[in-house]
User: Which sequence fits this backbone?
């Protein structure tokens, strides 16, 4: 038997920090109501309060997709790092 400890990759990596930022940003943007609780500037007659929130629906979708793709990449690279086979 060998007493060599198993070397594991770090849990917190730059990629995982980016994933966390992508997932947290929409919550911060929507919970900070004071930043968008106004009517101007209007966009095609829609007050800022409403179109800003609708814009964040699209931004959130893009950020969630980015986080998912980064997570997949991270998991594949960890599988290869562990000696496993990447799928």
Assistant:
């Amino acid at each position: 038997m060998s007493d060599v400890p198993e070397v594991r990759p770090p849990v917190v990596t730059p990629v995982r920090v980016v994933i966390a930022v992508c997932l947290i940003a929409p919550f911060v943007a929507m919970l900070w109501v004071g930043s968008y609780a106004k009517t101007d500037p209007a966009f095609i007659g829609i007050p800022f309060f409403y179109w800003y929130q609708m814009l964040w629906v699209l931004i959130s979708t893009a950020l969630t997709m980015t986080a998912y793709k980064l997570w997949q990449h991270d998991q594949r690279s960890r599988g290869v790092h562990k000696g496993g086979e990447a799928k």
Q: What stands out?
A: Residues 48-81 form the longest helix (34 residues).
